[in-house]
Write a structure and sequence with these properties.
Methylamine Dehydrogenase, Chain H; 2 domains; Immunoglobulin-like; 0% helix; mainly beta; 4-stranded antiparallel beta sheet
């Protein structure tokens, strides 16, 4: 089904012409814990917990895929008279751990390098999201509580100093944890949140001074569904996942410098976590409870085969292509790995080529084929725009071990390229026409 020029597919388990994708499932813990968020750093997964039971609230679980062992890492205790743990986020970069926990009236931020002790900062705000600008600078967003309303807050932590400013004094449609922050390529902070009248707002800080604002969607009833906001630096696309007034899960996307488009992914209820990730090829994966959705070539599909595993978060792997999903059931915690392309890939990797030479030339891109492959080894080369329209062969020139992808007649924007080889493998990447 197409709506308003955007390809929309509601709940499909199998689609003609596209293989049902298999996910490689790895059990990382056999206990009865409830994970909230995770991140990967090299061969290690760092997992934090939303409601983890006795004595686990102040721990991380770290699982090493090489040794296939996991350990709990103790973080400093946080003293609170009446804590209500309502959220947690974790980021790990080059062995440095950043952990944010949100309570009913406070946020606590832990930070630690490999050979350092934990540092702990406490804030009188309910921060729902943070992003790392560099090793010394972290940005936060969340809400400040008042007697009658919520105010949107932005904070910048540099070493031991934190600067805070209020962006919107009447925001968030009665909900906390419905704000999210990302950085673009120039380290400019962007925030997505619900306004008091139920609009989805995107705001960003131009020239590090003035906050600009635009409306992404309207008519959203106040709710407690969390929204997610990501920016992919490779394909320069902003993505927001949220739930509308009809409890439908929506995905809004804005390629850099273009306009927002909105897709309906599927049902947003019952209540629970949902999460989104976008890889360097422009593929999108959304998780919502036991359901996994993915978008490929402008269409949405629902994956099968993960019943009984409740999915809580999704991340893109370090190669920029594969997806990791964090999930759990009564028997333990799981990491799922897969690709939204009909090709199953295990934790050692197979099925896709990653190394190639791709660089822009006049009115197009030069692509050198990997592993001594030639044009004769190609089954098909397909070029798609952001809504899934295919190109014709006249846009592609094949010559020995490279192809020339011509964009002369293309409009400004981002395009997705898929090369299928006769050996069953594929290459996927995005290209950009700037003018």
């Amino acid at each position: 089904m197409r709506m308003g020029g955007i390809a929309v597919l509601f709940v499909l388990i199998q689609v003609t012409g596209l293989e049902a994708r298999g996910w490689n499932v790895m059990k990382v813990y056999g206990g009865n814990l409830i994970p909230y968020d995770f991140d990967a750093d090299g061969s290690k997964f760092y997992i934090t917990f939303r409601d983890s039971g006795a004595n686990m609230q102040d721990s991380l679980f770290v699982y090493d895929t090489i040794t296939q062992n996991g350990v709990f890492v103790r973080i400093p205790d946080y003293e609170h008279e009446n804590p209500v743990d309502i959220g947690a986020n974790i980021e790990v970069k080059s062995g440095r751990i950043y952990l944010l926990r949100s309570f009913n009236d406070t946020s606590v931020f832990w930070e630690k390098g490999e050979s350092e002790n934990w540092t702990v900062d406490t804030f009188p705000y309910i921060f729902s999201s943070f992003v790392i600008a560099n090793v010394d600078t972290v940005y936060f967003t969340g809400v400040s509580l008042s007697y009658t309303r919520l105010s949107l807050v932005f904070a910048k932590k540099i070493d031991d100093t934190t600067l805070t400013e209020v962006i919107d004094t009447n925001c968030c449609a009665g909900s906390v944890l419905s704000e999210a922050i990302v950085l673009d390529r120039e380290n400019v902070p962007h925030i997505a949140y619900y306004s008091a009248d139920g609009a989805l707002i995107h705001t960003w800080k131009e020239n590090q001074d003035v906050w600009s604002k635009e409306v992404v969607d309207t008519g959203l009833a106040p709710n407690w569904y969390r929204l997610n906001f990501v920016f992919n630096t490779t394909n320069m696309t902003y993505s927001i996942l949220y739930v509308d007034a009809n409890v439908l899960l929506k995905y809004a996307e804005e390629p850099y410098g273009l306009t927002w488009t909105i897709d309906t992914v599927g049902p947003g209820g019952p209540s629970g976590l949902h999460h989104v990730a976008v890889n360097d090829r422009g593929n999108v994966v959304v998780v919502k409870n036991e359901r996994i959705f993915h978008r490929e070539e402008g269409y949405w599909y629902e994956d099968s085969g993960v019943d009984s595993i409740k999915c809580v978060a999704v991340r893109v792997s370090s190669d920029g292509e594969n997806f990791f999903i964090l999930g759990y059931n009564d028997d333990g915690i799981y990491i799922l790995k897969g690709l939204p392309s009909g090709v199953r890939e295990d934790f050692e990797g197979s099925g896709h080529y990653h190394k190639s030479v791709i660089f822009p030339v006049d009115n197009g891109y030069y692509i050198q084929l990997p592993d001594n492959l030639t044009a004769r080894d190609i089954l098909s080369v397909t070029l798609y725009d952001v809504i899934g329209n295919k190109s014709y062969n006249r846009d592609i020139v094949m010559d020995n071990n490279h192809i020339l992808l011509r964009l002369d007649d293309k409009n400004k924007g981002i395009y997705f390229v898929k090369i299928k080889f006769k050996n069953g493998k594929q290459m996927k990447f995005t290209v950009i026409k700037n003018s």
